[in-house]
Amino acid sequence: MNKQKFQSMIDEFTVNQEELQQISAAFRRDIEMGLVDEQTSSLRMLKSYVGLPAGDEQGEFLALDFGGTNIRVLRIKLHGHGQFEILKKVAKPLRVQGIYDFIDAQAKAEDLFDFIAGLVDEAIDENHEQEFLLGHTFSFPSEQTNLYNAKLIIWTKEFATKGVEGQVVNDLLSEALVRNGVGNVRPTAVINDTVAVLLAAAYKQSSTYIGSIYATGHNTCYLEPYKGEAKARMIINLESGAFNKIAPNTYDKILDEQSEKPNEQRLEKMVSGRYLGVLFGLVIANGFGASNKSYDFTSIDLSAILSDETTALDDVKKIMEVKLERTILQEECEWVRALAEAIVVRSARLVAATFAGIIWHLDGDTVRKQHIAVDGSLYEKMPLCVESIQKALYDILGEQASALDTVLENGGSGLGAAIASAIEPVT
């Protein structure tokens, strides 16, 4: 790798202030077009059928967190004033090698939901007298017509259980609860995990109108006020990873062509943890003259590279020599670290640009003091992410960015589901 080549690769991942502002404006336009006709926008604009909590909700509620192969049921007591207590937590995998498997193609819906009903029964300590309302974070593609009614469109994440696609998941759960003698538990709400983040954060802190997941995947939701319209305020799930009004660079295009679903999820492929290591591998292959090779890097590798503060960059050298199977010079280690920084910083700046686009939609030219809730490993653990988001917000919004702060909300899937069952649905 020579210095000129290194700089050209850095430039590919550099997003300047003017470009950021243009991306924010395009994101705002996609929101506003999507509110009129979602077919005209790259954002899906999915209704959640729920608004924000008042913060004074009280009582015992159940939360089912169903987003992957590990499933959780929590019994949560809301005390009001943003305070809550987890009374019990039950968590089990849906697949144990050689013992049971509720997610493969041989499994049936009844088996899966009977297993979940058993976890619910354990969470309430087999109390079949008291009525419990249950909120359900269900992180799979669903068609939803109200807060209760979410119909699974298609399984993802290697799930293949028969008899669930095309069905209302709360109906399947309710039937299983009755079959297992737990009819005193009543499922009332199904929400997306991103919506859960916003609900949980807004319960703890007022003036929180945006929730985001910034991890292996990426998505954002916000509270739509329907200004000037006789509609109740509602959280809109943007499915913002699909945003496509943004120019991909050379490496983005290669990654997209090689991905499972080309021409889809453009923003997510530029910012999320699932893809950052892949982008880095493509850049490194080109930089070291090995474009015909595929280097297997992950976001964890990028985090380790950016965390190396030794003078000789010992960790960078160790990681790269294992991956490339060759000796790495000190100068090359410095270039490698700078490339990792450019990829991560671009990711954070693009995410910030979408936040600013939502702020412009909500507030126009006068930004209110507010919080943006973010959950996810990149935001929580990746070096440079938080400060790069803050700097980008100032680049876009100027001094008005001082009214904003981003806050970590890493318990949203459970608490948010409980809150969804505690508040009135929006129609």
Short description, anyone?
It comes from Propionispira arboris. The chain has helices at residues 3-12, 17-36, 109-123, 169-179, 193-204, 250-258, 266-271, 273-287, 299-307, 314-324, 330-363, 377-381, 385-397, 412-422, and strands spanning 46-47, 58-66, 70-80, 83-93, 95-96, 100-101, 132-138, 142-144, 150-152, 185-191, 208-214, 218-224, 234-237, 370-375, 404-408.
Describe the structure.
It holds the Pfam family Hexokinase_1. Residues 210-422 form the Hexokinase C-terminal domain. There is one protein chain. With 427 residues, the chain is of the alpha/beta class. It folds into 2 domains: 3-45 and 204-408, Hexokinase, domain 1 (3-Layer(aba) Sandwich), CATH 3.40.367.20; 58-191, Nucleotidyltransferase, domain 5. The protein contains 14 helices and 15 strands. The chain has helices at 3-12, 17-36, 109-123, 169-179, 193-204, 250-258, 266-271, 273-287, 299-307, 314-324, 330-363, 377-381, 385-397, 412-422; strands spanning 46-47, 58-66, 70-80, 83-93, 95-96, 100-101, 132-138, 142-144, 150-152, 185-191, 208-214, 218-224, 234-237, 370-375, 404-408. The chain has a 6-stranded mixed sheet, sandwiched between helices. A 5-stranded mixed sheet has the order 4-3-2-7-10, with helices on both faces. A two-stranded antiparallel ribbon has the order 5-6. β8 and β9 (150-152) form a beta hairpin. α8 runs antiparallel to α11 (330-363).
User: What gross morphology would you assign?
Assistant: globular
Look up the CATH topology of the largest domain: Hexokinase, domain 1
- Give the topology string: H per helix, E per strand: HHEEEEEEHEEEHEHEEEHHHHHHEHHEH
Q: What's the level 1 CATH class of the largest domain?
A: Alpha Beta
Q: Structural class of the helices, strands and pairings?
A: alpha/beta
* Spatial order of the strands forming the largest sheet: 1-13-12-11-14-15
